[in-house]
């Protein structure tokens, strides 16, 4: 129908009965072969357009689902970013504390060696002092006098 409105044309294209209009015109046409080829091409194009339309709808649905997934992951991703920043800060602080601990350990080791050396010196001084105190005097080379005591003998009584 050459006087059809745009809405009627779209309704005819969306409706599968639109092919019947072309089929009827084929029957009345004198150029049956050319009309049949034209009808087949129009139907193929129509089918291709329908496939493209379905594909676009599927893509739109996929994008909507993807948007929902991205929005759902926004909160966990934000939390992960915050935790990452906190971990970075904690690691930096840990490095500072480890450095302080190493310095303290070095100082403690040094102090232990000082204490050990002082103890060795004290032991040496005490040993020398004890040796001097207990050492026999060199001017007195004779052995100390021994006292002889006589044991009382048996008492004899005459009767």
Q: Any descriptors?
A:
159 residues; mainly alpha; 3 helices; 77% helix
Give a brief description:
By secondary structure, the protein is mainly alpha-helical. The protein has a domain at 6-105. Helices cover 77% and strands 0% of the residues.
Task: Walk me through what this model shows.
One of its GO terms (molecular function) is SNARE binding. It holds the Pfam family SNARE. It is a single-pass type IV membrane protein. One of its GO terms (cellular component) is endomembrane system. Residues 39-101 form the T-SNARE coiled-coil homology domain. With 159 residues, the protein is an all-alpha fold. The chain has a domain at 6-105. 77% of the residues lie in helices and 0% in strands. The chain is built from three helices and no strands. It has helices at residues 6-14, 18-28, 32-134. Helix 2 (18-28) runs antiparallel to helix 3 (32-134). It starts with 5 loop residues before the first helix and ends in a 25-residue tail after the last helix. The mean pLDDT is 82.
Question: How is the secondary structure organized here?
Answer:
Elements: H1 6-14, H2 18-28, H3 32-134
Helix pairs in contact: 2-3
| Mean pLDDT value | 82
Biggest sheet features:
none
Structural class: mainly alpha
The proportion of residues forming helix, as a percent range, comes to: over 70%
Shape: rod-shaped
Model regions low in confidence, pLDDT < 50 over at least 5 residues: none
Give me the strand/helix succession: HHH
Query: What proportion of the residues form beta strands (DSSP E)?
Result: under 5%
User: Span between N and C termini?
Assistant: 185 Å
The count of strands amounts to 0
Radius of gyration: 59 Å
Query: How many individual helices?
Result: 3
Coiled coil: 42-72
Keywords: Coiled coil, Membrane, Transmembrane, Transmembrane helix
Main location: membrane
Transmembrane segments: 113-134
